[in-house]
């Protein structure tokens, strides 16, 4: 198991909390809590060792296509593909944007 913490710039404010996915399904779970400030802190626990570069690349890509929200993102990953990771992350951001 590996624990990774990444902080990236955030440019929009949301309110509330959201959950997407279920780690017990062999997939991944993403929990987002909106916060004040101008950063998004991502706390990842993953079964895939040496994956920091993959996660950093994913959040760099997400930051290019949309403005990331301020807050905390907690990810419990059980080896999900980058595509599934992106879907789960976008799901929590979308859910909270309607709160």
TrEMBL record:
The record ties this protein, via InterPro entries, to: Mal_deCO2ase/Cit_lyase_ACP (IPR023439), Malonate_deCO2ase_dsu (IPR009662)
A GO MF label: acyl carrier activity
Which keywords does this Swiss-Prot/TrEMBL entry list? Cytoplasm, Phosphoprotein
Which GO terms of the cellular component aspect does the record hold? cytoplasm
Q: Which residues in this protein are found as O-(phosphoribosyl dephospho-coenzyme A)serine? A: 25
Principal location listed in the UniProt entry? cytoplasm
Query: Record's superkingdom?
Result: Bacteria
* Membership in a protein family: Belongs to the MdcC family.
**Cited HAMAP family:** Malonate_deCO2ase_dsu (MF_00710)
The record describes the protein's role as:
Subunit of malonate decarboxylase, it is an acyl carrier protein to which acetyl and malonyl thioester residues are bound via a 2'-(5''-phosphoribosyl)-3'-dephospho-CoA prosthetic group and turn over during the catalytic mechanism.
The protein depicted here goes by the name Malonate decarboxylase acyl carrier protein
Record organism: Kosakonia oryzendophytica
Q: Which gene encodes it?
A: mdcC
